[in-house]
Amino acid sequence: MTTDPTALQERIAHLEHQAEELSQVVWDQASRIDALERRLAMLMEREATRAADEEGGVYLGEERPPHW
Predict the structure, then answer these.
(1) How far is residue 61 CA from its own chain's centroid?
(2) Does some domain include residue 59?
C-alpha cells in the first residue's frame, strides 16, 4: 500500500464514489422489493377471494366433505 497522499486521496474518493453507488443500488432494490411485496399481497388476496367464491366458502379443515 502506498503512502503517497495524492494516491491515498484518489483511492478514498474512488471508495466514496463506490459506496454512494452501492447505497443507491440498495435503495432501488428496497423500493422494488416493497412494490413486489404489495403486488404479491394483492394477488394472494385476489386468489383467496376467487377460491372462496368457487368453493362457496373457505375450507377450515374441520368440516366434513359434502358426501359424508
Answers:
(1) 31
(2) no
